[in-house]
Amino acid sequence: MPYETSAIMLDRAKHTLEKIRDHIYLKVASLEVNAWRTKEPVPYEERTSGEPLALRSGDKWGDLWDCAWFRFVGSVPASAAGCKVVLLIDVNGELCLVDEDGAPFQGLTNINSEFDYSLGLPGKRVVDVADRAQGGEVVDLWADAGCNDLFGRYRSGTLKEADIAICREETRRLYYDYEVLLELAQQLPEASARRSRLLHKLYEASYVLERFDDGAVEAALELLRPELDKKGGDPDVTVSAVGHAHIDLAWLWPIRETIRKGARTFSTVLRNMEKYPDYVFGASQPQLYQWMKEHYPKLYGQIKDKIAEGRWEVQGAMWVEPDSNVSGGEALVRQILYGKRFFKQEFGEEVRVLWVPDIFGYSASLPQLLKKSGVDYVMTQKLSWSVYTDHPHHSFLWEGIDGTKVLTHLPPEDTYNSPAAPRSLAKIEREYMDSGVSDHALMLFGIGDGGGGPGEEHLERLERLRNLQSLVPVVQEPSIDFFRKLERELERFETWRGELYLEKHQGTLTSQGRNKWYNRKLEKALREVEFAASLAISCGAAPSVYPQAELETIWKEVLLYQFHDILPGSSIGRVYDESLERYAALYERAQKLTEEAYAAAAAAAGLKAGEAFVANSLPWERQEWVVWNDREYRVTVPSMSVTSLERAARDANTAEPTATESSLENEFVCVKLDSDGSIVSLYDKQIGRETVAAGERANVLTVYYDRGDAWDFDRNYRQAAAGTMTRESVAAYADGAKAVVEQRFRFGESTLTQKIVLHAGERVVRFETEADWRESEKMLRASFPVDVRADQVNCEIQFGNLQRQTHRNTRQDFAKDEICAHQYIDLSQPDYGVSLLNDSKYGYSALGHILDIHLLRSPSYPDPLADRAVHRFVYALYPHAGDYVAAQTYRKGYELNSPLTVFEAGESKAQQAAAALQHSFVGIDSPNVMLEAVKKAEDSDDLILRLYETSGMRAEATLSFGKGYAAIDEVDLMENNLATIGENTDTAKLSFAPFEIRTLRLKLLQ
Q1: What's this model's pTM, rounded to 2 decimal places?
Q2: What are the catalytic residues?
Q3: Which of 459, 472, 742, 762 has a Cα at 20 to 30 A from 602?
Q4: What are the Cα distances from residue 697, in Å, to 375, 700, 778?
């Protein structure tokens, strides 16, 4: 008699698995349910302050984002005596059970929550009551609910179930035995003897279970046990598994819901740790821990206990998991500084792994920042999302722009939401691209994005998969243990040099432009206030003038908004309504602190009360125009100084620029406009050459159809132009030292007013723009076809720059059509070049000789009103002799973003006039060395200076200070001393490798 076919056996096994699942729970009584509904969360002490509701299954309790405190009351019936008893609760939303103190106890998730079901089921609805009930046990539980699922979806807002049930423990155990063996069979080759044996055993068990009773369950368990007891041999790869719950700090839900997601997720972790002694869990983002500390102190204490036990791993090094494309360089340093300090101060943990599983690309500056902060490893998986090419490695050395290398691992399963199932291990073994040289791979298991974390199903599977025949073995352990093992194989790994570019989500370089504007402004404002307060200290003011605690508070909120779904523009509208309100308040406060700090510096330096002074926070002498009391002054200001306006003012000695409706001109450049408002000529009078490519037009404001979402737009958008903005009016005028052509454009319901500005004595042409953008599913770009030929475009990134191809020779070049840059992008040949500067934009394209800046876009998901608003921004064109290094383009970018400012001095406490004003805080004799930050040290009154080489060349620099210091030490980015450079000195000599960052500590003389 022939054997049954594999297809029939497999189909019957699948149906049997469903039957087993349906027999696990037997409902024996309903719970009495009451709820008190509110629009926003209220604390436990106010749990009955909302609208009262008495509920039965099927009753509606809320709309999207509504909140409620639920009370579940009941009694275990006598019929359940001797049985394991649980509660089955599902409110079609997220729920957090609390203990008698109102502290989070266990999180629950509706079973129909959105999730990638190929990775498992996200629902959590089971609450343990008694392993062996007596009957008559009273149930009286309170729970904090949100009327949303894990992904912010509305799921009817009704009570689905609230019941007391018997859990048939042996049936539950059989379910996971059967599931693991069935899935293992599905992963094996058709001709495998192991597969054939498994299918026959599962098929045989299915007939044993036809009469589904305790005896049949026991018989099926015994039948399958030998197959689960079979062990693997000597492995080629061992998988390290760590529980994980990726929690986006905002995305399809507001920040306030994230705080509750943290409580639900983390309390669930603690309950599962009580049941599964091998369970190791890890969580990143100190911001999330800080919220737990503030909102749920009892839960936070329990987390600390598990960290001390070694079962809970703190991960991530950074304050949040930030976007690393748009965030500024110093902001990334502060992410690490505040992140690592928090973990060290709170838990005594020195975190060595950068944990960024979901960010949208990886700046080539990161390796150096990490190594100089004591972070040796990187974990991510997002590169698996790339569209056109596959990253060639899962384990490799990542080399940054300065040559620093950091060991990097991409979990080969290509997810941070592993189901921890046989298919997980099979995929890791099958697809690990570096298995030929590595014995180790990482697996992150659990439900993530909206939190949730591992459920019982993950942990039950792992108990069965430790060393199961036909699969690679898996061990639960902290990720740092995995990386230490991986590091032993380091010499075998290949090196990837440069950025880790994600071939997807390029729209996030532009989406939600107002958020990006505020981010840039606040990064610069915080730099300014820190320098101003440090300058005040160096001029003799007391260290208390430095508002350290308030600055840390502001910084941490700015860092929060740099989270990888906030700053990139990929969250719901409410997130931006709230962040824009907070950004405005933070920016106003930072400006006020700057004014106060500069006033203190001026007073300490001896300026007269009420005297106007000019502040320059950049490390070179600047000659620019400033405005004070409606009058323009041409000033010369020493590097990093405050200087009286009277002393700084100089005769202009320049001809006034001229403007007509079709031209702008000064002594350096002549700009000619077409009748449509575009630029047909930008002639460099000093060099004697045309900048705009022959026969082409620059600054054409082109609108393209954009049917994408906040993350993505069509790579071939150039084939779908909707038109160009039409000029409605033009006016030309001279305004003191500047000439202006002001044009108003329209497209559909949108208008744009742009001032093209040319100052006397300057080569930079500014485009000061205000756009009332009302288009939907369209993008706005401005292009500049320049008469320059180069195969590479120079793009400023954090602490340096990166060259990218201007051709599309390869698939990888094709994929990198939209690129990120910070303050400038530049196209240069050896004798001439053109830089495109900006004050708040990050998305560009450089194709052939065309520089293109992405100004605005308006996707409809997840925010249907994204960027339909008034926007103000500046971009500028800087034609120059030589390449971008010779032209010091980086300085023009900083000058655009950190303009000279004029303040009024406060009451002076100095005994003599301002000798200090004859010198700057510091002067640097190397033109390619930038002083990025001056701040007070975290743990002393010392001053910290952060410098870097800007051009990709070696540099020798002498720093000349305006006063002497007791000691000058080199420190790392965590401000740990490395070496003494000088004592009782006012100078420091430094050598820089290309793009090297160096940080100094200045100890004040007593």
Answers
A1: 0.97
A2: 358
A3: 762
A4: 48, 7, 22
